[in-house]
Design a protein that fits this description.
about 130 residues; mainly beta; 2 helices; disordered N terminus
């Protein structure tokens, strides 16, 4: 290979942006886990998360009516970094979405929809945090 070609390639590599490595002191965005609320189920199910690692849970109600994601023990054990969780639940009108960024604690947590009969119709799941 010619020396000028090598120098050109080296210059291109030096000018290229750094790969996905954050600069020192720069915050790394938490990965996003989408959780779909449907009539009458959650997807994915079960929900798998990594203990001690920040994650953004993005809840999307794909149904035309209201549903909630009730997981009181899970939200109580987690460290909430941003987003609104009232009494251990995320309540969404039809078509609405919301996000919560948190650091989950290890464990196995039950989830259900608190609306009348929704859990009986299959709207329940578990969160497994390892």
């Amino acid at each position: 290979m010619r020396p000028t070609l090598l120098l050109g390639a080296a210059a291109l590599l030096a000018a290229a942006p750094a790969s996905a490595q954050p600069a020192p002191g720069q915050l790394v965005p938490a990965p996003v886990q989408v959780i779909n609320l449907q009539s009458y189920s959650y997807a994915p199910t079960p929900i798998h998360l990594a203990a001690g690692r920040p994650v953004t849970l993005h809840f999307v109600n794909r149904a035309g009516k209201s549903h909630d994601f009730t997981a009181r023990e899970f939200f109580s054990a987690a460290r909430i970094l941003s987003g609104q969780v009232a009494n251990g639940e995320i309540d969404l009108r039809g078509g609405q979405s919301a996000s919560v960024t948190l650091v989950p604690a290890a464990g196995r947590y039950k989830v259900h929809c608190g609306h009348p009969f929704h859990a009986l119709l299959g709207m329940r799941s578990v969160i497994v945090v390892r």
